[in-house]
């Protein structure tokens, strides 16, 4: 895939006039960040030198090429990056794909990239698909840090060493290290040994320093009424957390005046221990933001698909609670919007991954009354609307590993 992408970029660099012929564009940025264990066959220590290090690589011109694609009408874009310490995460143009009427975004990407696409001309959007879209986390710290949201293993981000004159965006998975690290050592000694092993390994690869200076983003996330900052020290801490993309749909509320179809998919909490406290505190914010956007597109929307899936991460000796947190959130926040009327043009509604929730917001007022909303949903939309409610949904990695959407281009 990388060679095809390089060939495409090189062609448009040589002849920019070709850009106007690209009407349908599908692209996966699976580059510069191989620090997660995935099913994509990535070596956690591999460095894509032709992309990250080679000054002659056409990927150095990727944003200029993307900015030239002003005729693209159908966009399918995925980025599988986790941290903002990657070179391509910066210098993103403030406007990308201004002619796009159908947009699908998936994976983990900087907020600025998603905003540069969707906030450009939202009135032109006809079809929008946010497939478990997550925003990149903060730049890895320069000290050893444990990321509690990384799969089910202990993970460490080794940010910077006095022996390496560059920022290293590397994660060591415990299982990946068992072949050369002594698990019997105390944690402090293990960390020191790990750092030395890293230095030895990195020195076998030539690397150019990653600039420390990071330009200010063109699109910034600012607090909005649905953002609950009570559990965070300040605004920057709230928005620097890796997790589902926030303040994107809210910023689009009232601006997508032509939207016909909407597909929203995310991973949800199976129990109160599924997410870290910070991420759990933001879940309500996300549903509240989505509810605001859904209300704003009621006059034009014809098709709606909502999916919430359980995490890919298995749990040992786990018994599912009677009411999952994600179902309670759906019942409290999104369900009233769906059954509230005003869907003047609606033809089809699909709700997947919703089971049951407690009536009254889970306040425990007397006997527990459980709802699943099936009958009420069908009744609210009437006979002329196809309504599908399914208890099961695709599993969803809460870190937004996403799915490859290819690197091909189709000309129309």
Gyration radius (Cα, Å) is 23 Å
Shape: globular
Order of helices and strands: HEHHEEHEEEEHHHEHEHEHEEEHEE
Q: Can you tell me the residue ranges where pLDDT is under 50 for at least 5 consecutive residues?
A: 32-53, 139-183, 185-216, 400-412
Q: How would you classify the helix and strand content by structural class?
A: alpha/beta
* Count, helices: 11
- Biggest sheet architecture: 10 strands, mixed
Range of strand content = 15-25%
Kindly state the number of beta strands.
15
Features:
10-stranded mixed sheet; 3-stranded antiparallel sheet; 11 helices; globular; disordered C terminus
Give the gist of this structure.
The protein has 412 residues and is an alpha/beta fold.
Descriptive report:
The protein is α/β, with parallel strands linked by helices and 412 residues long. It has two domains: 2-136 and 217-411; 145-202, no CATH class. The chain has eleven helices and 15 strands. It has helices at residues 2-14, 49-52, 62-68, 111-118, 174-177, 187-202, 235-240, 249-252, 277-296, 325-338, 374-381; strands at residues 22-29, 74-80, 102-109, 127-135, 145-146, 155-158, 170-173, 243-244, 261-267, 303-309, 348-352, 357-358, 370-371, 386-390, 409-411. Strands 1, 2, 3, 4, 8, 9, 10, 11, 14 and 15 form a ten-stranded mixed sheet that branches. It has a three-stranded antiparallel sheet with strand order 5-6-7. Helix 9 packs parallel to helix 10 (325-338). It is globular. The two termini are 22 Å apart. The model is unreliable at 32-53, 139-183, 185-216 and 400-412 (pLDDT under 50).
């Amino acid at each position: 895939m990388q060679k095809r992408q390089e060939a495409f970029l090189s062609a448009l660099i040589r002849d920019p006039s070709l850009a106007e012929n690209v009407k349908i564009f599908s692209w996966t940025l699976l580059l510069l960040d191989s620090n997660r264990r995935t099913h994509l066959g990535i070596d956690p220590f591999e460095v894509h030198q032709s992309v990250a290090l080679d000054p002659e690589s056409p990927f150095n011109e990727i944003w200029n090429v993307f900015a030239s694609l002003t005729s693209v009408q159908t966009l399918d874009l995925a980025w599988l990056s986790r941290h903002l310490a990657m070179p391509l995460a910066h210098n993103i143009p403030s406007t990308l794909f201004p002619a796009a009427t159908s947009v699908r975004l998936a994976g983990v990407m900087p907020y600025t990239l998603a905003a540069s696409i969707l906030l450009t001309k939202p009135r032109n959007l006809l079809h929008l698909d946010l497939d478990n879209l997550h925003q990149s986390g903060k730049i890895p710290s320069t000290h050893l840090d444990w990321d509690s949201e990384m799969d089910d293993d202990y993970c460490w981000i080794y940010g910077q060493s006095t022996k390496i004159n560059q920022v290293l965006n590397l994660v060591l998975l415990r299982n990946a290290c068992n072949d050369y690290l002594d698990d019997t050592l105390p944690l402090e000694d293990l960390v020191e040994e790990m750092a030395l092993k890293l230095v030895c390994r990195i020195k076998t690869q030539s690397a150019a320093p990653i600039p420390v200076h990071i330009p200010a983003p063109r699109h910034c996330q600012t607090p909005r009424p649905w953002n609950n900052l009570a559990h965070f020290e300040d605004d920057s801490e709230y928005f620097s957390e890796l997790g589902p993309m926030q303040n994107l749909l809210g910023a689009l509320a009232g601006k997508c005046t032509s939207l016909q179809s909407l597909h929203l998919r995310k991973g949800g909490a199976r129990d109160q221990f599924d997410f870290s406290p910070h991420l759990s505190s933001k879940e309500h914010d996300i549903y509240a933001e989505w509810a605001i956007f859904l209300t704003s597109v009621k006059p034009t929307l014809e098709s709606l698909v909502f999916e919430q899936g359980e995490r890919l991460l298995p749990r040992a000796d786990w018994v599912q609670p009677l009411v999952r947190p994600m179902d309670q959130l759906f019942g409290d926040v999104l369900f009233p919007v769906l059954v509230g009327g005003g869907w003047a043009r609606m033809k089809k509604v699909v709700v997947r991954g919703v089971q049951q929730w407690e009536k009254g917001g889970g306040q425990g007022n007397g006997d527990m009354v459980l709802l699943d909303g099936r009958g009420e949903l069908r009744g609210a939309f009437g006979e002329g609307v196809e309504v599908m409610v399914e208890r099961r949904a695709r599993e969803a990695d809460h870190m937004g590993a996403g799915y490859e959407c290819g690197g091909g281009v189709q000309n129309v």
